[in-house]
Amino acid sequence: SLNAYFHFYNYRRPHQAHDYKTPAEIYHPKLP
Known about the structure:
Layout: H1 2-11, H2 23-27
């Protein structure tokens, strides 16, 4: 489904433009 694809794209797939981090890691950084 499209919803599953977006979840994969945002949470599982690293992006070269984001230094190989997922968009979720960029927009929602983990707290220390």
